[in-house]
């Protein structure tokens, strides 16, 4: 049967056709059920993919560690943290071709100094920030030699020998300060011969820490607290530019608060200061390409002049700080 056109209908019936618009019934319940099933399938797929990816990554890590023949819990931890960092903004530097020795002061039975309650140990803070510095340096492509990456202890001569033997280009020792009184802030110690490279390293680290936020910039200091005639051991027995960072006073709440809140940023600031120094002294160019064929040494440090007497001097335990001296009296239980 032919369907009449509208015109034909009008001619025959004298009026326009009334069309009943058939309202389509929408089966909401079916749509909702379909949607729930779809969401279920998608969620399942996402979970499955994540599981497969993590399994593949885990296998890779194991393989890498086997190949390197250097399997350690720390290596696995680093893999995890670097994967986490990849989510962050791109690294500030890359392919930095030099070696840095990072020294977390004290360790094991040598707790260093403590806070007023006696429950917070310097050795733990030192290690925490050292691991952050390591993380950023490695992100920048720097070869890092860790004096310790756990709660272990090395003698001072062993620490220096480790850096010298590894032909590290720079040495950074990390500490927390202490004082029985109202002093806060960050200071960085350098050999009392005021060597140029070491001073630059200390200043760059201090500048970058100040950008993050410190309670007070106590500046670059030379020699040993209370006695500029002697040096901290690590500033005397290492051949490369070195410095000892006192990252705030563990005896001050404000410094501990800043330390806890900015741990990662402090780690990055110290790493940035190190890389900036490498560029400043012409060890590498901005792209990280190495410009010096030999290890970077600090030519003005007495140890490099084979002056055994000054090394011996530096190895001498400094006297207790004279209370009349125009410096604060360190409570730090250490002799370097
Ligand atoms: Zn210390």
From TrEMBL:
<feature type="compositionally biased region" description="Polar residues">
    <location>
        <begin position="318"/>
        <end position="336"/>
    </location>
</feature>
<keyword id="KW-0812">Transmembrane</keyword>
<keyword id="KW-0472">Membrane</keyword>
<keyword id="KW-0378">Hydrolase</keyword>
<dbReference type="InterPro" id="IPR050695">
    <property type="entry name" value="N-acetylmuramoyl_amidase_3"/>
</dbReference>
<protein>
    <submittedName>
        <fullName>N-acetylmuramoyl-L-alanine amidase</fullName>
    </submittedName>
</protein>
<feature type="region of interest" description="Disordered">
    <location>
        <begin position="316"/>
        <end position="336"/>
    </location>
</feature>
<dbReference type="GO" id="GO:0009253">
    <property type="term" value="P:peptidoglycan catabolic process"/>
</dbReference>
<dbReference type="Pfam" id="PF01520">
    <property type="entry name" value="Amidase_3"/>
</dbReference>
<dbReference type="InterPro" id="IPR002508">
    <property type="entry name" value="MurNAc-LAA_cat"/>
</dbReference>
<keyword id="KW-1133">Transmembrane helix</keyword>
<dbReference type="GO" id="GO:0008745">
    <property type="term" value="F:N-acetylmuramoyl-L-alanine amidase activity"/>
</dbReference>
<dbReference type="GO" id="GO:0030288">
    <property type="term" value="C:outer membrane-bounded periplasmic space"/>
</dbReference>
<feature type="transmembrane region" description="Helical">
    <location>
        <begin position="27"/>
        <end position="46"/>
    </location>
</feature>
<feature type="domain" description="MurNAc-LAA">
    <location>
        <begin position="160"/>
        <end position="275"/>
    </location>
</feature>
């Amino acid at each position: 049967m032919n369907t009449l056109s509208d015109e034909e209908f009008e001619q025959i019936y004298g009026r326009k056709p009334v069309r009943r618009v058939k309202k389509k019934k929408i089966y909401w319940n079916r749509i909702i059920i379909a949607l729930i099933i779809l969401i279920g399938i998608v969620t399942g797929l996402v979970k499955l993919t994540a599981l497969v990816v993590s399994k593949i990554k885990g296998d890779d890590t194991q393989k890498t560690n086997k190949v390197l023949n250097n399997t350690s819990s720390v290596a696995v931890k680093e893999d995890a943290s670097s994967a986490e960092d990849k989510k962050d903004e791109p690294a500030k530097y890359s392919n930095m071709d030099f070696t840095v020795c990072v020294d977390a002061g004290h360790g094991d039975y040598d707790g260093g100094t403590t806070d007023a309650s006696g429950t917070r140990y310097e050795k733990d803070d030192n290690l925490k920030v050292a691991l952050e510095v390591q993380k950023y340096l490695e992100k920048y492509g720097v070869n890092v030699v860790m004096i310790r990456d756990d709660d272990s202890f090395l003698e001072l001569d062993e620490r220096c020998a480790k850096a010298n033997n590894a032909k590290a280009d720079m040495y950074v020792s990390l500490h927390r300060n202490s004082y029985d009184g109202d002093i806060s802030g960050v200071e960085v110690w350098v050999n009392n011969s005021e060597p140029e490279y070491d001073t630059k390293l200390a200043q760059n680290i201090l500048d970058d820490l100040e950008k993050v936020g410190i309670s007070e910039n106590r500046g670059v200091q030379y020699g040993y607290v209370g006695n500029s005639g002697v040096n901290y051991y690590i500033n005397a027995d290492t051949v490369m530019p070195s410095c000892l960072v006192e990252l705030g006073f563990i005896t001050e709440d404000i410094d501990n608060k800043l330390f806890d809140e900015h741990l990662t940023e402090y780690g990055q600031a110290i790493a940035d200061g190190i890389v900036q120094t490498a560029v400043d002294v012409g060890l590498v160019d901005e792209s990280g390409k190495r410009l010096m064929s030999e290890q970077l040494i600090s030519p003005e440090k007495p140890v490099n002049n084979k002056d055994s007497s000054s090394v011996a001097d530096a190895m001498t335990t400094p006297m207790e700080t004279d209370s009349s001296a125009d410096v604060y009296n360190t409570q730090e239980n250490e002799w370097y």
